[in-house]
# Entry
Amino acid sequence: MVDEVLEKERPQEAVFDASQHPADLAELLEEMSLDAARGSLLSLPLSLAADTYAYLEPETQVGLAKVLARGELAAIVTEMNGDDRADLFNRLTPKQQQALLPGLAQAEREDIRRLAAHEEGTAGAIMTSDYATLTANLTVKDALNKLRREAPDKETIYRTYVIDRERRLIGSVRLQQLILASPKQTIGQVMERETRAVSVGDDQEEVAQAIQKYDMIALPVVDDDGRLVGIVTHDDAMDVLQAEATEDFQKTAMITSMVENIGTASIRLLYQKRVHWLVLLVFANLLSGAGLAFYEDTIAAYVVLVFFLPVLIASGGNAGAQSSTLMVRAMATGDVEMKDWGRMLVRELSVALLLGLTTAIAVSMIGLWRGGFEIALIVAAAMLLIVMAGSLIGMSMPFLLSRFGLDPAVASGPLITSIADIAGVMIYFSIATAFLIG
Amino acid sequence: MVDEVLEKERPQEAVFDASQHPADLAELLEEMSLDAARGSLLSLPLSLAADTYAYLEPETQVGLAKVLARGELAAIVTEMNGDDRADLFNRLTPKQQQALLPGLAQAEREDIRRLAAHEEGTAGAIMTSDYATLTANLTVKDALNKLRREAPDKETIYRTYVIDRERRLIGSVRLQQLILASPKQTIGQVMERETRAVSVGDDQEEVAQAIQKYDMIALPVVDDDGRLVGIVTHDDAMDVLQAEATEDFQKTAMITSMVENIGTASIRLLYQKRVHWLVLLVFANLLSGAGLAFYEDTIAAYVVLVFFLPVLIASGGNAGAQSSTLMVRAMATGDVEMKDWGRMLVRELSVALLLGLTTAIAVSMIGLWRGGFEIALIVAAAMLLIVMAGSLIGMSMPFLLSRFGLDPAVASGPLITSIADIAGVMIYFSIATAFLIG
# Structure
């Protein structure tokens, strides 16, 4: 639908020329061979080429870095935004890095070194150095003139940060406020003194959540001494939140580490990311078989019990998947925290009891029809306990993993299902054995 | 971590006063009784009270609307942004709506009527009417003066939209460009003519994705005649993407419709959203039992086969959950589209074959130990076919659902597991019966 409107204005959407948005140009490049992509990229004006290069997938960036001449790559890299440049640098091989650095000016080299040093997943790793600063003693008129000169190089001048002599962040001012103020006022008079900031080592997800919560365009980043070292912009925050959601999604299905774009991932990569957990779960699920072996006599005497095995263990797993998914997402968005565990457990108990009773009634009717009164009673009792156990395990596991510093996302899906399976087998056959044999 | 830095600057984070951000004030109000919340809200300056009210959870907004006097509510609603006001209006009961309208000025009443009319989930439903417009014949100087006058009422003046006499969108101009341009130039000379826009009926998720893709601050919304009717801002786009991710997450676990905040949801609500699918899946899983019943003779003769049942059906479900989750998320983020189905299927076949072989080897060792050569062979062959079947079902189901206009998200998790269970039982026992009995 978006495309329809865009097409009205841009009849030749697929043409590779300078009238297109860099995000679209990057998509077109992705479909070309590396050599063709190199030629197309170099046909663009330098600043657009740099923006387009920044929008490419990481693998394409590295591939193109190989086929571009040193001087070509250096020219593009010089034009890139600070954060994109540092990200690219971290992706190159040490040999490529060494080849690139001499082609850059001193300022860009230092900028790369500063930004690339931050640990992945921190505010430092996603911040940019392309922000504008002002000092408190400037007049509004001088400040506007400074911004006019610097504007083309900065990611955003909608909010400018005010620093003291030691580069400590002391306030901020919106462009809107500058054009509203009298030209003779000083920045110190018009700036907002309370400026939210994050530390360079803060978790990128928390930073992105803060930008979302407070509806900000950018959030300044300070070092341990309160000195301004960068800003995180709203568009990067959006990308972080989307990537974290994708990662959580994939983790719930026991995929080892994030597949960035499944459309372009190789067979080998997909196999590697899936096989570990799949094999591990084979051994976990053999425990259910061992549980069954323990009740061999009961099964041999009452084969009818086996018919209800799939539905009982599946229901426990399904209830567990519901509970854990609700909890995992609520923890990811910050709706639920560690301290809420007790309160959530009490409520989950009530919900699980109701769900257990409902499913027990549903299955007992089939039990009555297929196996008679005794079997119906056993199956219903097992269903009640298995659904309750599944729900409580599903609810608790994300907290438990989080408590031990692990990612709660792996708690939903196959892991819960496997644990619920084992619990289901044990509950079902211990009840059946007690009723029918003991 | 974010909190730590904020605390340095705001020692009394939990105090309810006008120095706090409205998002934080709203969180404090959520924890109060309605009467206390009313008092606290009214203690704030009107414009801050309106912003805070807009940040409240929908249920709290409706609750407060009941305890606020008509005049108080009308004053707050008048100060709210157009989109927040329309959202609130849609949440009120018809009686509350009728009580509120007479307290508002004509302009706000019409604004509500215009915005509230759009269908939920469309660009129209999330757009705001608080944007600034210019005409092409204005000089830059006059334009800046107009923006100075209007700025306080607009959500963003960082990008202003240029319209013709019929309010048709003909271009846009960034505040940055205005302050860089000579005061005597006309807007027609400095504006960007190619302005991306979406239609009022476009899907909100696609609109949000466009804002993310092109790193925009806002996206203008036009009606069928190309007339500008609103803008969608980056912060609302971020909220849409996060809410859609949460909804998809919950759907994968077969939760009927989105639970907005699980921390505050009632037991009754949680039960209702979970019970339908859980009971439906009970009946689906009984099919697996029926499958087992069909092979009763084989089972009675070879009870050892039952021990491998849980691991075989669980592995099919796990492989299916991996495939479907990867596919569902890739479709949600736009990495994979309907037309990619054939290509993805071919690749999935290779990945599934490798995964099937690996898990077959793993389980055959246990088969050899527990049941001898013949059982090991049967179990390994069953594992290979079941994992492949699970993967292919998991990969295809999201496309299939999408093809029939259903949400692909329900395809991952319990639904796939249940289908894989049935397939697993049939594959396993038909192989076993052919080998051992037939």
Observations:
- The mean pLDDT of chain B is 85.
- Chain B touches chain A through 128 residues (CB under 8 Å).
